[in-house]
Give the backbone structure.
Amino acid sequence: MTKYQRITGMLDVLFDDQPYWRYILEKIRQTTDLFGYNRIDTPLLEQANLFIRGVGEGTDIVEKEMYIFEDRDGDYLALRPEFTAGIMRAYIENGMHTLPTPLRVWTVGPLFRHERPQAGRYRQHSQFDIEVIGERDPAVDVEVISLAWHLFTRLGFYGLRLYINSTGCPQCKPKYIQILVDYFSQFADKLPPNDQMRLKKNPLRILDSKEEATQPLLEDAPHITDHLCEECDTHFTKLKGYLEAINRTYIVDYRIVRGLDYYTKTVFEIKADGLGSQDTICGGGRYDGLIEELGGQPTPGIGFGSGIERYVIALRHLGITPPEEPFPKVTVSYLGEIAKLEALKLAESLREAHIGAQFTPGDRSFKAQLKAANRINAKFSIIMGENEVQVGQATVRDMENSEQTSVKLTEVVHWLTERL
RNA sequence: GCGGCUAUGGCUCAAUGGUAGAGCAUCUGGUUGUGGCCCAGAAGGUUGUGGGUUCGAGCCCCACUAGUCGCCCCA
């Protein structure tokens, strides 16, 4: 068939999707403006070690999903699989700790993970991401969640669910994991192979297992929220109180365990309908140890990533249609070579006047030119023929009622401005 | 990395193992300078790739590739 094809898991965003993207990016800007966040853009490529260190060596992302390669200088580079590590690198490298605290940033762009593609999951996908650096107050946890919620409301989403949990800290998390292992070890023989493996490798993952046999065992499984240290417990309690204060309904879901090593305390997810099995539209949490881990001063942080492709799927599912892309309301048609010159000039002056115009090239039949005007839903088509050139006038055809008016060439811009 | 389903013009799909078609879209014409509706015509395919079975394969078998949905995991 075709000689070249898309790389697996990477999408062409075609015209039918573009209005959604434009709409989404507009709403993102409005929302970040509303909350006072600064945009930051970091490179798509980083030293591979940044992610190995930042995201965690044992994580799936690092272990089997990173696009990693050696460049011409022999350095190991990786296509970024997530935003946070790169932004923290930028924060440290640019001495951004001297900026007013907390530092609030946002970004949007492509990320790369070599996973098996599926509905709502692509090897190259785009995320909207925000990070707040330098503040431990759970009030910023709430701010971050609120920002996501504002965006989704603006986009027109409904039926979303907010799930929160705490993953504790280096003090209490390991103790809880031990308690969890002890609990599931009693039922080791009842666990499906999948979860037996998790019990050994990553016990927390059993909590969000979809294995049927595991479900009854989860009923009585110990919850981390009952085993938090005092600091984490206070943080979680305040978080819930603040969420209630702003009337943000939440569900405490002790089964939320996020896949990245750096999370501490607050973790959260927002889910939407209509996405198939990949229904998380926003996921994030606090990472109070990450910046120090990457070589900076001990600094707390919190953020989330949110998948734009999933927004598009969800918007479609909910029947939310973005505004149409603006398109010129005027076309310029011509008959003959002399008139073509005038038509070109006219089209150019309409663009300079910010009216915009589309010119049909190729010396097509007049019929074809009007057809093209019709196709883009033009309100007017300006007709230039030999007759018009001779008398220095253009014929302006109203495409809705087919009425034609003669307008002096020098008056065309003015005439159209009054009617558009 | 594992599993189910799928693969025919740009798109959506037809074609008892026997000459690959339709609709939509595109272009042209029906009007020496007039769009939408209608009519006519043209262009567009080595049936995803490679093997095999058969007198003969779009159709049956195998492998690969890609898509899709799911698992793992995640946005």
